[in-house]
Amino acid sequence: MHLVYPATLAVLLFCVGLYGVLARRNAILVLMSVELMLNAVNLNLVAFDVWLRDSLHAGQALTLFTIAIAAAEIGIGLAIVLLVYRNRGSSDIDRLRDLREGTGPPQDGSGPGSADEKSLAPATDNAAGSGSDQGTSAGRQHA
Amino acid sequence: MTLTASHPGFLSPAGVEIVFVLVGLVTLGAALVTVTTRQLVHAALWLVAALGGVAVEYLLLTAEFIAWVQVLIYVGSVVVLLLFGLMLTRAPIGRSPDADSGNRWVALAVAVAAAATLLTVVIDAFRSTWIDVEESVAGSSKVTGTALFRHWVLPFEALSVLLLAALVGAIVLSRRHGQKGSDR
């Protein structure tokens, strides 16, 4: 088999995942695109391992490790996304901009008040959430 | 699949290439639908098709153990986790108009530029390189297990510690703390 076929497929899958990471708004869709990119890398590793016929089978061993690390990553990532959703009431990564620099363009840097209006303030959109969330956020502000 | 080592396999070499290209087209199409559809649950279901296509490509590259690991872990658990995540964040069932962010054209330009650059380099580099998939099976479970437990034992054990840490971290992150104030 020509080595160009798996290499080309891996490149195209990686770029599809790259587009998804950059263009998607929902955090879980971004995680799906990251999975596509990891699969492209795995396909490259397997193809080059089969081509080189390494006696240590480094490519396939590394592919197994990558799959396990991807599983750990998706677990942690989903836990973080669920925590953000519980605290903020949204998982849109465009609206989570509390950590951006304050000195932005002049229409953004007019003060912390306007920045808070644009971003999603913690636990204000959480009307549908239970009362323990409110208590949690209030307790964290006291702590 | 181990029979392909002893006698001419189920597919001729040209047949393997044709099947690889066809499955690759299906995989690529499923991946494109995954990143462009506006229905969030459909994106997860198309991701199953893309990951399953990659598993078939592993089988065609005679890496059968990795193919089944791909089916078990990706299709079996990662997609189910993603579906759970979609449902726990109350994703809309129908079409959601704001699935794509405002900079999708910039993202498209970046992705097309990266694809063009990488394709040029990769095709130029491996223009005259062939994989011999008929000679022997490179990734049967015996070969992979021998390599994994003879040469890669220490990374394997370190990886189990990493998985344990990820498990504990996920539990700590998703625990509802603060029945009586914050216990952090």
UniProtKB/TrEMBL annotation, chain A:
<comment type="similarity">
    <text>Belongs to the complex I subunit 4L family.</text>
</comment>
<dbReference type="GO" id="GO:0050136">
    <property type="term" value="F:NADH dehydrogenase (quinone) (non-electrogenic) activity"/>
</dbReference>
<dbReference type="InterPro" id="IPR039428">
    <property type="entry name" value="NUOK/Mnh_C1-like"/>
</dbReference>
<keyword id="KW-1278">Translocase</keyword>
<keyword id="KW-0813">Transport</keyword>
<comment type="subunit">
    <text>NDH-1 is composed of 14 different subunits. Subunits NuoA, H, J, K, L, M, N constitute the membrane sector of the complex.</text>
</comment>
<dbReference type="GO" id="GO:0005886">
    <property type="term" value="C:plasma membrane"/>
</dbReference>
<keyword id="KW-1133">Transmembrane helix</keyword>
<dbReference type="InterPro" id="IPR001133">
    <property type="entry name" value="NADH_UbQ_OxRdtase_chain4L/K"/>
</dbReference>
<keyword id="KW-0472">Membrane</keyword>
<dbReference type="GO" id="GO:0048038">
    <property type="term" value="F:quinone binding"/>
</dbReference>
<dbReference type="GO" id="GO:0042773">
    <property type="term" value="P:ATP synthesis coupled electron transport"/>
</dbReference>
<keyword id="KW-0874">Quinone</keyword>
<comment type="function">
    <text>NDH-1 shuttles electrons from NADH, via FMN and iron-sulfur (Fe-S) centers, to quinones in the respiratory chain. The immediate electron acceptor for the enzyme in this species is believed to be a menaquinone. Couples the redox reaction to proton translocation (for every two electrons transferred, four hydrogen ions are translocated across the cytoplasmic membrane), and thus conserves the redox energy in a proton gradient.</text>
</comment>
<dbReference type="GO" id="GO:0030964">
    <property type="term" value="C:NADH dehydrogenase complex"/>
</dbReference>
<keyword id="KW-1003">Cell membrane</keyword>
<feature type="region of interest" description="Disordered">
    <location>
        <begin position="95"/>
        <end position="143"/>
    </location>
</feature>
<keyword id="KW-0560">Oxidoreductase</keyword>
<protein>
    <recommendedName>
        <fullName>NADH-quinone oxidoreductase subunit K</fullName>
        <ecNumber>7.1.1.-</ecNumber>
    </recommendedName>
</protein>
<dbReference type="Pfam" id="PF00420">
    <property type="entry name" value="Oxidored_q2"/>
</dbReference>
<keyword id="KW-0520">NAD</keyword>
<feature type="compositionally biased region" description="Polar residues">
    <location>
        <begin position="127"/>
        <end position="143"/>
    </location>
</feature>
TrEMBL record, chain B:
<dbReference type="Pfam" id="PF00499">
    <property type="entry name" value="Oxidored_q3"/>
</dbReference>
<comment type="function">
    <text>NDH-1 shuttles electrons from NADH, via FMN and iron-sulfur (Fe-S) centers, to quinones in the respiratory chain. Couples the redox reaction to proton translocation (for every two electrons transferred, four hydrogen ions are translocated across the cytoplasmic membrane), and thus conserves the redox energy in a proton gradient.</text>
</comment>
<keyword id="KW-0520">NAD</keyword>
<keyword id="KW-0874">Quinone</keyword>
<protein>
    <recommendedName>
        <fullName>NADH-quinone oxidoreductase subunit J</fullName>
        <ecNumber>7.1.1.-</ecNumber>
    </recommendedName>
</protein>
<keyword id="KW-0472">Membrane</keyword>
<dbReference type="GO" id="GO:0008137">
    <property type="term" value="F:NADH dehydrogenase (ubiquinone) activity"/>
</dbReference>
<feature type="transmembrane region" description="Helical">
    <location>
        <begin position="40"/>
        <end position="59"/>
    </location>
</feature>
<feature type="transmembrane region" description="Helical">
    <location>
        <begin position="12"/>
        <end position="33"/>
    </location>
</feature>
<dbReference type="GO" id="GO:0048038">
    <property type="term" value="F:quinone binding"/>
</dbReference>
<dbReference type="GO" id="GO:0005886">
    <property type="term" value="C:plasma membrane"/>
</dbReference>
<dbReference type="InterPro" id="IPR001457">
    <property type="entry name" value="NADH_UbQ/plastoQ_OxRdtase_su6"/>
</dbReference>
<dbReference type="InterPro" id="IPR042106">
    <property type="entry name" value="Nuo/plastoQ_OxRdtase_6_NuoJ"/>
</dbReference>
<keyword id="KW-1133">Transmembrane helix</keyword>
<feature type="transmembrane region" description="Helical">
    <location>
        <begin position="65"/>
        <end position="84"/>
    </location>
</feature>
<keyword id="KW-1003">Cell membrane</keyword>
<keyword id="KW-0812">Transmembrane</keyword>
<feature type="transmembrane region" description="Helical">
    <location>
        <begin position="105"/>
        <end position="126"/>
    </location>
</feature>
<feature type="transmembrane region" description="Helical">
    <location>
        <begin position="152"/>
        <end position="174"/>
    </location>
</feature>
<comment type="similarity">
    <text>Belongs to the complex I subunit 6 family.</text>
</comment>
